[in-house]
Write a structure and sequence with these properties.
Length: 93
């Protein structure tokens, strides 16, 4: 196990004020393939938080698993979370 994993300390989160949303994504296994963007959109009309992960084409055949975590203000009662993964074939510069 990597040294930074052993010494990592989870931040304190006040779950009375915040909601933690997370999702796992498969990405390319080399540094050039680990390109992704994470965005959260709130749709008040549909009472949904949407967590969107955009990945980009990469030159690697290997895959690795990445977790994305986003902290948002406490979700109102009745709200749902939707997850969307999009691949953008254009190379990000």
């Amino acid at each position: 196990m990597k040294e930074y994993c052993v010494s990592a300390v989870a931040p304190k989160i006040d779950f009375q004020q915040y909601t933690l949303i997370g999702v796992g994504t498969m990405v390319g296994g080399c540094p050039a393939g680990n390109r992704l963007d994470v965005a959260v959109e709130q749709d008040e009309a549909r009472q949904v938080y949407r967590l969107k992960v955009t990945t980009y084409d990469n030159p690697c055949r290997g895959l690795s698993y990445r977790q994305q975590w986003v902290l948002v203000k406490k979700m109102p009662v009745g709200y749902k979370v939707e997850f969307a993964e999009v691949n953008d074939s254009k190379r990000r510069k």
